[in-house]
Amino acid sequence: MLENPLSHAPLNSKSIVDVTDTALWVAALRAQESERSDAAFHDPLAGRLAGKRGAAIARSMPNAAVTRWGVVIRTSAIDLLIEDAIRSGINCVVNLGAGLDMRPYRMTIPPHIRWVEIDFPDLMQLKDAALKDHTPTCHVERIGLNLLDGARRKKLFAAYRSRSTLMIAEGVVPYLSNDDVASLADDLLTCCQFWILDFDNAGIRRTPRSWAKQLQAAPMLFQPIDWFGFFENCGWHAHRVISSADESARVNRPYPFSFPWGLLMHALPRAVGRGVLTASGAALLGTATRAK
Asked: I need a labelling partner for 56 at 20 to 30 A (CA). Which of 158, 229, 232, 260 fits?
């Protein structure tokens, strides 16, 4: 069972006291999905990694059913984008802010793929230890790095400079400032050709009031008026977009009937509700500037 070495919070604590605790939260939600008979994906190690703290955090968050639905839909959509990218010739995947993501263990990633995970050093060391008796389907490397360390980040990215490299940043960007995201996007322009992100294009969205207390230590800072416009200004353009509405239909997972947002969504006219759900999802971004 995993304990976050950065927060040093009690195993049954419900509080997020460091941004890395969000990795435990997401792992717990993926574990819950894996228990369903109609699961959109199966992540058998997620519960082991989330541990008691991850489960406690997941139970304590308001609108839990809606949040779980959102994580499941974005995870499933990004799985699909990764599979398409690999079929198109990608041979190296770099997962930025990888947290407790288990794709090389739960997906059938071809053995020739080089899979690189980057996150805080203590978290990567802990993950190495927790998974030492488990074998991924491809070669996995873990690198400890604070993504806000611009100088080290540039140096590291240079080692993966190739048009056959795919970058992923799932659930990472919301916790970075607009300036930090712009800087990261600029560094990636010279490193790779494609980048997968989850998106929320419903305008400026601050941390929901009901989450404010739990997320004091990990506030949501990224607040673009136009999500896709922001990245276009950084040189990144949408090559494929999977909205939450489309992925929800593909995996047959309707928006949950939960109070109050679920009931409100289902009370809206069908076209309006679908319009709301097209404002979020996952996107494969590409740049006209080819990595050399």
From this structure: 260
